[in-house]
Amino acid sequence: MQNSISPTRFSGSLLGCALGQAVGASLGIQRHGSSAFASVTGFNPLPPAMPSIEEIDYQILWADVVSKGGRPGSGALLCAAYKQNPLTGEDASAFALYNMRRGLTSPASGSCENPYFESFAPAGRSPIWACLSPGDSAEAARLAGIAAMVDHGGEAVFAAMFSAACLSAAFVAPSVPKSIGTAMKMIPFDSATANCVRAAITAVQSGLAGEEAKLRIDNAAGTCDTGYGPLNVGYFVLSLLLGNGDFGQTILAAASFGGATRQTAGLAGAFVGILRGDEAISDEWRAVIGDKLTSGWSKPSFKLPKTAGDWAKLMEALAMRLPRDGAPTVVAEPPAPPIAEPVEGAADPEPAPPAPDPLAALQDNSLCQPFWSLTPYSQVLEQANLRVTFESLDPPFVRPGRSNRLRVLVENIGKKELGVEPAITGPEGWALAARPQSAKLWPGATYEFAAVVQCPPDANPGDASLLNLKLGTNEFNAALLKRRGWVSVGPFRNDEGMGYEKYHKPEDVYRRDEVFMLRSGIPGKWTPVYFDGPWMPIEDAFNSSAGVIYYRTILESGEARKVRIVAATDHALIIWVNRQKMLWYREPSVAFPRPRRPYVVEGTLVAGANELMLKVVRGNEPIRGLWFYVLGEDGQIPEDIRFDETKA
Question: 347 by DSSP, 3-state: which?
């Protein structure tokens, strides 16, 4: 087992990682979000300097957390830093930040109500975990998984774990395929991420490149969403195999395939920079963007590195300060062995034993296994040498008459034995079944108990609540979120596909006691319905047939503001805001909740109540549902907007 990395090799790889990601991401920005293959031959146009790269910004934030608290055992400290230092964004970060401000911590903060929870963004931030765990792919994957769950979930976590493990292996691996093979051991065999990696490998083995190779990965991913994590893992692996260790060819290939090219080309550049050192990045590439880091932070609570070199030195200092037992370490260069003079008549020397596989110890992926089965609704909190996990088996929402089942784990993360006497209480008026016992916990030990809380049937599902656990003087709260309320009526007829244009009475008759004649002559009224956030699964309401359904609610806004309304569905939709027609389209296709045409419109909300009505049309094909959310001018979700169906 290779248990050391020379300092010269380590320093060169760290600088290569920093420069490689900066160059690759700067190139990839020019095609980020593209769905088509286009052969890229270089920068076009030439950037005046290195642009701000969001993935590097987040790594700087994570480095600050690690420098203060060591290697994280959960996402609790990362969530706190994320909330304190928000980056303006309109993708997963906006929804995760909104969840954190409502009391959720990871992994629930990344998974709940997040339309982008399986994007590739966390993988683009994974080089930091490889640099802190050189040659220790299991640990790199573990750390990347923890960080990914702060604002993502599902396959995005596996994509980040694979990417971090692949880069970590590059510190000691003899080849590109060896690094990829090591990383594959860190994710579930049957995951979409693993399927896309295998598709990339078989494409290259079949002699495919360009559009044909891209199609193999697109088919394996089963989606044309350019931000999907597994899809971009496939592009990343494909670019590594086609580039075969050549820096320029690797990042050009990554930029050519489209998708999340800022992240895939950045990762590809970081990988080659680690594998071959900073010398692999020629002046032809370095001179274009320079060395200066341009940050997206406005007023961070930490010191920013000024150059890629500063960033590499920070990584080296952290890695040397935070070693892990059993992982390869950085040691002095071993002296060259003396050359023995041949002795006449002496027997031939015994052949040297084959060099051990430097990655043999990475066969064990036990550090990664917990991420494969962790419930996405769990909430992890840390305080006073205690880590508490509310592992929820149900989505963390208030549902009248329904129960929320939890497993509560209390872990001693300090260095001294602790006595705990758990006392758990539910929201006022809720029924609670739990019998926690007092326990002694030695360092690293965990005590767990089950709890079931039931919401009273007459509760308002629009009210948020808290589950409280007291451990001595420490309190830990798990948030139970309010659901979005609407009133609905339908389905109405959609004969011969004319329902989109046809007027139906609910478009201007809002009385709750009004009776409408629905499809097949069935009477119906406006009826309250509730959804867990922006995803509205409505196929069942159509009963597998073509039709038209109306949804209404009141959007309460704390102030008058300009907003962007995003509504994505698979067939046709019309939206009225304050009785003004704002958004309409008929586009039978697989919709993705991106703020782009035809799914987005800019408008204005008044302070106070705003009437909102949706007309959703289903054709003969099934409709998966509807994504609906509102963004402010800064790309964030306004915290003072409320859905109140009681006034609709």
Answer: coil
Taking a C-beta distance cutoff of 8 angstroms, is the pair 412, 404 a contact?
A: no
Main-chain phi, psi angles of 382, to 5 degrees: -130, 140
* Cα 255 from chain centre: 21
Side chain identity at 638, as an amino acid letter? P
Contact 289, 48 (CB under 8 A): no
d(CA 34, CA 30): 9
CA-based nearest residue to 37, from 169, 175, 213, 172: 213
Structure tokens at 57: 């910004």
Instruction: Give which of 139, 492, 509, 574 is closest to 324, Cα–Cα.
Output: 139
Residues 6+ apart with CB under 8 A from 20: 247, 251, 266, 268, 269, 270, 271, 272, 273, 274, 280, 281
Element at 279 (helix H, strand E): none
Residues 314, 61 contacting (CB under 8 angstroms): no
pLDDT digits (tens, 9 = 90+) for 510-535: 999 999 999 989 999 999 999 988 99
What does the block give as tokens for 575? 């939206």
Q: Which two tokens stand for residue 271?
A: 């990988």
Q: Are strands 4-5 and 329-330 parallel, antiparallel or unpaired?
A: parallel
- Mean pLDDT, the chain, rounded, equals 90
**pLDDT at residue number 533:** 87
Tokens representing residue 37 in the block: 């293959």
DSSP state at residue 504: -
pLDDT at 607 over 60: yes
> Would you say 188 and 372 are in contact if contact means Cβ atoms under 8 Å apart?
yes
At 336, phi and psi to the nearest 5?
-70, 135
Reduced to 3 states (helix: H, G, I; strand: E, B; else coil), residue 465 is strand
**In this predicted model, what pLDDT tens digit does every residue of 411-450 receive, in sequence order?**
999 999 999 999 999 888 899 999 899 999 999 999 999 9
528: cis peptide before it, omega within 30°? no
What is the pTM assigned to this prediction?
0.90
For residues 291 and 226, give the distance between their C-alpha atoms in angstroms, rounded to a whole number: 29
Q: Which residue has the tokens 């409320």?
A: 642
CA separation for the pair 15, 280 (Å, rounded)? 11
Decide: helix, strand or coil at residue 460.
coil
Tokens of 205: 């083995």
d(CA 351, CA 63): 46
Tens digit of pLDDT for each residue in 238-297?
999 999 999 999 999 999 999 999 999 999 999 999 999 999 999 999 998 888 988 888
Encode pLDDT of 116-163 as tens digits.
999 999 999 999 999 999 999 999 999 999 999 999 999 999 999 999
Contact 279, 214 (CB under 8 A): no
Per-position DSSP letters for 510-570, written without gaps between them: --TT--EE-GGG-EE--EEEEESTTEE--GGGGTTS-EEEEEEEEEEESS-EEEEEEEEES
| Phi, psi of 415, deg, nearest 5 | -110, 5
Q: Residue 427: how many CA atoms within 13 Å on its side-chain side?
A: 21
pLDDT at 386 over 80: yes
